[in-house]
Amino acid sequence: MSILKKSDKNKKTEDIAPIFQWAGALSGLQKFLIFFVTIAVIGAGFYFFIFKPKFEKIEKLKQTLKTKKRTLVTYEAKAKILPQLEEKLKKLKEELNYAMAALPNEKEIPVLLTEISRAGTKTGLKFINFKPKPEQVKEGFYAVIPVSMVVQGRFHQHVHFFDEVSRLYRIVNINSISMQSTNGGHILNVSCEAETYRFVNKEVSNKKKGKK
Fold it and tell me: Which residues neighbour 128 within 8 Å (Cβ) at sequence distance 6 or greater?
């Protein structure tokens, strides 16, 4: 066995001996160039196959981290003003509800007209004419309902009537006022047009247009 091992070692030595002989025959410059090329090849392999992929991955992670940080800053800024936005939204809803309450819906119009008539009767006026006109849709979300009126009474009764109308919870405007005295100037016939408004549901309005 020992003789076989020695023969294997001798054979390996003989195989690499030419390499050592070739290397020993090289000049110092050639050895330096071979060493330099070997280092360059190893360095290039390390750079392209190990360092560069990891470096690019790290750079991508850095960019992702920067993007996440910017997003976080944006969300934090929005979170700070969120209570203010919620408060503004709450106020807008309250204002909308108030405006909606001042605009009666279609079912409440007869009640409102009755209130106007009752206000005139309360102040002692006599209604010569009280005629609602066709409504006019404005801006797509509300309609104007004009009411032509002729009322008879004394001056202070007319003033009281207009004051009562202005105190109604619903919006009512008095326009086109004209006066004519009778009975020696003690009684006034006042012609005017009262305008009230109602909220128009867009969906209902569109359905009505569709049916037409």
Answer: 150, 151, 152, 189
pTM value is 0.47
In 10 A of CB 116, how many CB atoms? 22
Cα–Cα distances in Å, from 190 out to 23, 68, 123, 159, 160?
128, 73, 14, 11, 13
Domain with residue 188: its CATH number is 3.30.70.60
Same domain, 134 and 192: yes
Is 168 found in the same domain as 135? Answer: yes
Domain housing 5: 1-102
Percent of the chain with pLDDT strictly greater than 90: 4
Tally Cβ neighbours within 10 Å of residue 124: 13
How many helices and strands in the chain, by DSSP H and E?
Answer: 6, 5
Whether the per-residue pLDDT at 208 is higher than 50: the answer is no
Q: Average pLDDT for residues 153-175, to the nearest whole number?
A: 86
- β-bridge mates for residue 131, sequence order: 148
DSSP tag of 140? T
Report how many domains make up the chain. 2
Q: What Å distances lie between residue 83 and 65, 77, 78, 204, CA to CA?
A: 28, 12, 9, 35
In this prediction, residues 61-65 reach a mean pLDDT of: 84
